[in-house]
Write a structure and sequence with these properties.
2 helices, about 130 residues
């Protein structure tokens, strides 16, 4: 048993079913329409927020890539330019010049061999067409 506002005992079957009358009253229908509009507004706000967050992440990512690119560029430039200047300072035909040339040649050969191994590994790991 439940009690109504006047604290009188009310039988469960005497409690009106508001869901059955929901479509029948214009006020309730208006409330349902407003609730649906509110829900749609919330959904649209969430979608707009997600799009804004994605755009912000893309802008941040692009900025980070630019900074990283510039950093790697300058390190690479400095290392290469420094090596070329050092090579020019060393007299040709001396043992120091020969050591630099031999070391550079060995490094190029090792780099080529490593690249060839990677290509070979990629080819063996690639899925074969059926």
């Amino acid at each position: 048993m439940s009690r109504n506002r006047n604290s009188k005992a009310v039988e469960p079957e005497a409690i009106p079913d508001s869901t059955a009358d929901a479509a029948a009253t214009p006020e309730l229908a208006a409330v349902e329409v407003e609730a649906e509009r509110g829900l749609n507004a919330v959904v649209q706000s969430v979608k707009a927020g997600a799009e804004a967050a994605e755009q912000a992440a893309n802008r941040f990512g692009a900025g980070f890539r630019k900074v990283a690119y510039r950093g790697v560029y300058y390190v690479s430039f400095g290392a290469t330019f420094g090596a070329l200047v050092a090579a020019r300072l060393v007299p040709q035909g001396s043992w120091v010049g020969d050591a630099i040339a031999d070391g550079a040649s060995a490094a190029r050969q090792a780099f080529r061999e490593q690249a060839a191994r990677r290509v070979e590994e990629d080819m063996t790991q690639a899925p074969t067409p059926a």
